[in-house]
Design goal:
single chain, globular
Length: 149
């Protein structure tokens, strides 16, 4: 904050990024809810589709939830018949997870809905601005990652 109590430009950008993330999450939840999914479940299915056999720890990181929350989330997806767990533990004693056929169909539908939201979010930006925004956000993310918090 400046002496006048107004946010600095970096603080304003941080607030704007957080507000954008919150609205994006809300809009994604709205389009996923009719499919019986929330954003964390969608992120989990998406990660399992992209990286079959991924560990629960990595799934949790990709879905932005704790390992404990991911275990509960996975149990729910198994009960719904969307994810299968291996009987054999892997090298870290974790059970590998994989999508079922119905999960792949559901994910295709969900991806179309989410694409509509992100396309609406970025429709005012041409390709050059989108690339520049992506590059600048990567710099910001990497700065926070490198500093360790």
């Amino acid at each position: 904050m400046t002496d006048r109590g107004l946010p600095t430009l970096p603080e304003e950008l941080g607030i704007l990024i957080k507000e954008t993330q919150a609205v994006l999450h809300q809009r994604m939840d709205e389009v996923l809810r009719p499919l019986g999914l929330n954003v964390a479940q969608y992120a989990c299915l998406h990660a399992l589709h992209d990286s079959p056999g991924i560990t629960s720890s990595e799934l949790a990181r990709r879905a932005f939830v704790s390992r404990q929350s991911m275990n509960v989330l996975l149990q729910g997806l198994v009960q719904r018949g969307l994810v299968e767990r291996s009987d054999q533990p892997g090298p870290r004693r974790e059970l590998a997870a994989a999508l079922t056929g119905p999960a792949v169909e559901l994910l295709d539908n969900a991806q179309g809905r989410v694409s509509g939201i992100v396309n609406r979010m970025t429709e005012g930006l041409d390709e050059e601005r989108l690339l520049r925004l992506r590059d600048e956000l990567v710099v910001c993310r990497d700065a926070l990652t490198a500093s360790g918090g």
